[in-house]
Amino acid sequence: MLDDLEEFALQDNAQIAGFHPEWLYAGLDPKDPLHFEKRSPFPTISVVRESALKNAQHVTTRIADDNLRILSGFDYDDLQTRFSRLLLSSSSSSA
Q1: What is the DSSP letter of 56?
Q2: Neighbours of 35 (CB within 10 A)
Q3: How do residues 29-55 score in pLDDT, each as one tens digit?
Q4: Among 32, 79, 81, 95, which has the minimal tally of Cβ within 10 Å of its Cβ?
């Protein structure tokens, strides 16, 4: 399936963005709150056409800046506690 997505991305000029419950950005301190920008309760793949990103560049840049500003204001351990609760509620509601 991943090979098919990569082929689609190459042919249709799309970008693939992954989200995962244990996401870590390379090079950041393991307790940097910014890791939560790409965390989700379940592994998720988002496929976006590059033309859509180019048309919304000013918006996507603002979102990234806002994410950095907001997440930097939180304590990592507090975010981890909240995220763990979210994971627990997600797993209990899908059972």
Answers
A1: T
A2: 20
A3: 999 999 999 999 999 999 888 877 777
A4: 95
Instruction: Name the nearest CA neighbour of 34 among 59, 85, 70, 63.
Output: 70
What count of other Cβ atoms lies within 10 Å of the Cβ of residue 37? Answer: 16
Q: What are 69-92's pLDDT values in tens digits?
A: 999 999 999 999 999 999 888 777
Q: From residue 59, how far is each of 24, 52, 54 by CA, in Å?
A: 24, 11, 10
Phi, psi of 25 (to 5 degrees): -75, 135
Region of residue 27 (left: phi > 0; alpha: psi -120 to 50; beta: else) = left
